[in-house]
C-alpha cells in the first residue's frame, strides 16, 4: 500500500491550518481523503466543496441514498477508509 504523508491538525499552520479549519467547521472532522492533500490546501478545499455539492444539493436522492451510493462505490473500489 502506498504511503502519503499527512499533516496533523495540531502541527498544521498557514494555508493548511486555514483549509483544515474550513473543512472542520463544515464536517466536524478532517477526513483522510482530504488530509492526504494537505500539501496542496487549495486541492483539499476543492475536494470538500465538490463533496458538499454532490451530497447536499437537490438531486432527487435522499441524504441516506447518497451515502449508501458512496459506501457501495468505496466497497467496490476496495477503499480502506
Structure in words:
By secondary structure, this protein is an all-alpha fold. The protein has one domain (9-76). The protein has helices at residues 14-27, 32-35, 41-56, 63-76. α1 packs parallel to α3. The longest helix is centred in the middle third of the chain and has 16 residues, at 41-56. The radius of gyration is 14 Å and the shape is globular.
Q: Outline of this structure?
A:
The chain is mainly alpha-helical and 81 residues long.
Secondary structure topology:
Layout: H1 14-27, H2 32-35, H3 41-56, H4 63-76
Tell me what portion of residues adopts beta-strand conformation. Answer: under 5%
Number of domains: 1
The helix tally amounts to 4
Helix and strand sequence: HHHH
Name the descriptors.
single chain; 81 residues; mainly alpha; 4 helices
